């Protein structure tokens, strides 16, 4: 394993970048944040100074022209993901793009194709997947510790509805709860089951106060074998993010399935054979793990655990969920 560190460039000064991803890259073993760009040079400079980033650019183009940058992270609003992923790929940069990867399956496929053509890697920033507990849960399921899976339940909700200027509430920009947080339960169910859905049915609250985006949604995602994910997501409800895997002989419960912080927050519970036990999970920074996983693939050629085609498949389900919610219909995939 080489000791080389990748130089990251950040396209945009979004809150998720400043709060979580940039600190995670700084804490990673194989990466360092070398530059940040904004369309507002003053904003770029302020963010660079605040986070000790060496170089600030006043345009995304300028950062992509920097030959020292190996990989870029794109935390821009959803409707800009396609354009800047493709432009980054054409500039020869590897890419970590925020979830959801795109606005549609078609856009995601175009992004994956452009990256492959340019010979660069493209990964979707679902950081939760790199936390060791998900591999632990998959191993428990495969070992039959809870028997056959009968269903999965999950939710991801928070309340930010008063902030009506937020980009999440711009319909044309890819706003809405399914795009923003519903994508997590969908992604987690696909990950744990190792299968793609067969049909979806979603009901949603569309808010005229918030540019008619879905502020709350509840859905049923059907997989083969009569197994389903029941989920809800929202941006106008109390915060929670649990996940439960129900088996014939036991249950896996994850109180905080997608967000971890303090030591112990990544632990989960298994109920089987008449007892409920807490499974202690190593305390890690999932954002650092995400950065290092991509770095190993870039430096050493280690296969990505989740490549661009996985993101395309996830977008196919999101497309169906949004269509189902708008048409109040069951959509077969």
UniProtKB/TrEMBL annotation:
GO terms for molecular function: nucleotide binding; oxidoreductase activity. Keywords: Oxidoreductase. Pfam families: GFO_IDH_MocA, GFO_IDH_MocA_C3. Residues 134-253 form the GFO/IDH/MocA-like oxidoreductase domain. Residues 7-124 form the Gfo/Idh/MocA-like oxidoreductase N-terminal domain. Belongs to the Gfo/Idh/MocA family. This is Putative dehydrogenase. It comes from Paenibacillus prosopidis.
């Amino acid at each position: 394993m080489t000791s080389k560190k990748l130089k990251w460039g950040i396209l945009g000064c979004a809150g998720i970048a400043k709060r979580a991803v940039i600190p995670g890259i700084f804490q990673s073993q194989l990466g360092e944040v070398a530059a940040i760009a904004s369309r507002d040079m003053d904003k770029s400079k302020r963010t660079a100074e605040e986070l000790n980033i060496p170089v600030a650019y006043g345009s995304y183009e300028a950062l992509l022209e920097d030959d020292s940058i190996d990989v870029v992270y794109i935390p821009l609003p959803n409707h800009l993901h396609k354009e800047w992923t493709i432009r980054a790929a054409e500039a020869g940069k590897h890419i970590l793009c925020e979830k959801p990867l795109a606005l549609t399956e078609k856009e995601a496929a175009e992004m994956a194709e452009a990256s492959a053509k340019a010979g660069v890697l493209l990964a979707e920033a679902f950081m939760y997947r790199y936390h060791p507990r998900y591999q632990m849960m998959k191993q428990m399921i495969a070992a039959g510790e809870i028997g056959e899976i009968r269903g999965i339940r999950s939710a991801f909700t928070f309340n930010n509805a008063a902030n009506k200027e937020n980009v999440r509430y711009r319909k044309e920009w890819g706003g809405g709860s399914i795009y923003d947080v519903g994508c997590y339960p969908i992604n987690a169910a696909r990950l744990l089951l190792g299968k793609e859905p067969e049909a979806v049915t979603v009901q949603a609250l569309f808010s005229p106060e918030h540019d008619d985006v879905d502020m709350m949604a509840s859905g049923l995602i059907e997989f083969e074998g009569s197994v389903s994910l029941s989920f809800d997501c929202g941006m106008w409800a109390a915060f929670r993010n649990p996940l439960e895997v129900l088996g014939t002989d036991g249950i896996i419960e994850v109180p905080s399935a997608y967000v971890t912080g303090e030591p112990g927050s990544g632990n989960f519970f298994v109920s089987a054979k008449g007892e409920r036990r807490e499974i202690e999970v190593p305390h890690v920074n999932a954002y650092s793990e995400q950065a290092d996983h991509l770095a190993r693939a870039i430096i050493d050629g280690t296969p990505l655990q989740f490549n661009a085609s996985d993101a395309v498949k996830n977008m196919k389900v999101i497309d169906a969920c949004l269509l189902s919610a708008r048409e109040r219909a069951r959509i077969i995939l």
